[in-house]
């Protein structure tokens, strides 16, 4: 694998107040076992829902392949 194809891991944890619909962020997701750690993916935030002060939902579209 060429080094140009390697990407760093996410280093910044974003706060809820920093997220906006349409932002592209790195997310860690495990397709087979979602409650466990998985691979890093780019994802576009599609919706943010604040159910209560401590219960929040983020929906995102996983972006696969090379983005231009």
Overall strand count: 3
Mean model confidence by pLDDT: 87
By helix and strand content, what is the structural category?
mainly beta
Name of the CATH first level = Mainly Beta
**Overall 3D form:** globular
Number of helical runs? 0
Please indicate the count of domains: 1
Approximately how much beta-strand content do the residues carry? 35-45%
Strands in their spatial order, largest beta sheet: 1-2-3
Q: Give the C-alpha Rg.
A: 14 Å
CATH architecture: Roll
* Share in helix: under 10%
Low-pLDDT segments, ≥5 res: none
Query: In the CATH scheme, what's the topology name?
Result: SH3 type barrels
Largest sheet: 3 strands, antiparallel
Elements, N to C (H/E): EEE
From the N-terminal CA to the C-terminal CA, the straight-line distance is: 20 Å
Descriptive report:
With 68 residues, the chain is mainly β. The chain has a single domain, classed as SH3 type barrels (Roll). It is built from no helices and three strands. It has a three-stranded antiparallel sheet, with no helix packed on it.
Explain the layout of strands and helices.
Layout: E1 24-29, E2 39-50, E3 56-63
Antiparallel strand pairs: 1-2, 2-3
Top keywords for this entry?
mainly beta, 3 strands, single chain, 3-stranded antiparallel sheet, SH3 type barrels, 68 residues
In short:
The chain has strands spanning 24-29, 39-50, 56-63.
